[in-house]
Amino acid sequence: MNHVRGEEVARWVAGVLEDDAARALEDHVRGCEACSALLATEARVEVQLQAAMALAPRAGPWRKARVLGVLVPLALAASLAALLVPTTSSRSGQDAGVSDDVGAPVQVVRYERDDEVPPEALSAFEPQDL
Amino acid sequence: MMLADAMVTPLDPEPALVRRALAGERSAWDALVLRHRRAVLVALLAQGLTLSAAEEVCQEAWSRLWSQQQRGGLSRLELPGLAVTQARFIARDGYRRDRLAAAIPAATDVAPDVEETVSSRQSLERVAAALLALPARDQRLFRLAQQDGVPHAQLAEQFGLSVQRVRQIVFEVRTRLRAALEAP
Lengths: 130, 184
Fold this sequence. Notes:
The structure holds 2 protein chains of 2 kinds. By secondary structure, chain A is mostly helical. Chain A is 57% helix and 0% strand. The longest helix of chain A has 24 residues, at 61-84. In chain B, helix 1 packs across helix 2, helix 2 crosses helix 4 (81-92) and helix 3 packs across helix 4 (81-92).
């Protein structure tokens, strides 16, 4: 197989590549440093997109104007405020705890590249070192 | 007590699969592993692991979660977050250190500087705004697929679309959000 194309990698990461093509891509990437780097880059993009989704509240169309007009500016302000407060604590970048409730307040997520552990998962389970 | 395994299909809703997995039904567990495999791999790849290393860590993570369930130590199963947590723990803890050390970049734990953090935050906010500006159907479909891990076949049935069309929408939306992320 030739080197994989960027779009194929993006499709794999997005989970929309057909099974056969996905397996072929994986087989190639395991033995190709350049394509492995491409995959890592796209994976980092995906983590950022996940973090952004956590930042955006779920809303129906009737809420969109309010969300864009009020909640997003509030999130921006809160984000800037958060930057002024030094902290070493971890927050979720892939916050699985964002509410489906359209009335829920925006959860401002301090994104960190290697930090996407949902807090509620941590409270529910301690990782095991066997 | 191990329950008799029932058939699992891609259309099974997540909560039902989780209940069955927590009750010890292996086929439901396997279905959840398959459903959330990519999300866990992507999280590890983003950390700098190679695909082979990520697959190994991923397998170990699911295995430990299953063992935990078998010991009765798992009362909730929020996926993919829990599996990502476990996998990252294994990666960070240097699981099979000799084999993985080279695959985990030393810079993983280096905190970004303020400028990078602000830039990152602005990018995320642009993406969030772009997501909220999408048609309601596309936004909902994309979130269900990418945030909740709902299988495309299930979404196709729910939205009255073909699986191919679901995938097309997911990728188009992702492409648009990616552009927002990278916009200057």
